[in-house]
Amino acid sequence: MENRRNFLKASIAVAAGASGVILSTQSLANSPAFNMPAGIVYTKENPGKWAKKIGGHAPKVTVNGNKITVETDHGMSSKHYIVRHTIVTQKGEVLAEKTFSSDDEDAISVFEIKTDEKQLIATSFCNKHDMWAELFTV
């Protein structure tokens, strides 16, 4: 579990800090800071080899004050499921996380987060289709 946590944190930190650029738009794919090597982090704008998997893998984020809901519209079975949701700063600091079991009915997380950060990243990690990220404004 610690290795997975370190991988997620390092991946987001690299995404946020590449070339010393801080994300400033709603589109991760169009940001120079999100120029990730193919096959590490996917977005709706840059789904790579998973272009047909966007709808069931890209996290959907709803913000209502300090309450942040992350939902991945994905089936949950023993062979294919969403493993984890995280809320991460652009510097790679994990603010919240929820790990799922294949027995869970849905991949929905609700977090109460207090932060001075204006833009955060939600991630959704699928055991078969890798990590997906969505930049959002609080």
Quick recap:
This protein has helices at 2-17, 54-57, and strands spanning 41-42, 60-64, 67-72, 82-88, 94-99, 107-112, 119-126, 130-137. With 138 residues, it is α+β, with helices and mostly antiparallel strands. The chain starts with a helix and ends with a strand.
Q: Helices and strands in order, then pairings?
A:
Elements: H1 2-17, E1 41-42, H2 54-57, E2 60-64, E3 67-72, E4 82-88, E5 94-99, E6 107-112, E7 119-126, E8 130-137
Parallel strand pairs: 1-8
Antiparallel strand pairs: 2-3, 3-6, 4-5, 4-7, 7-8
Characterization of this structure:
By secondary structure, this protein is α+β, with helices and mostly antiparallel strands. The protein has a single domain (2-137), classed as SOR catalytic domain (Immunoglobulin-like), CATH 2.60.40. The protein is built from two helices and eight strands. The strands form two sheets. It has a five-stranded mixed beta sheet with strand order 1-8-7-4-5. The chain has a three-stranded antiparallel beta sheet with strand order 2-3-6. The longest helix has 16 residues, at 2-17. It is globular and about 40 Å long. The chain starts with a helix and ends with a strand. The model is unreliable at 13-26 (pLDDT under 50).
Question: What features would you highlight for this structure?
Answer:
alpha+beta, Immunoglobulin-like, 3-stranded antiparallel sheet, globular
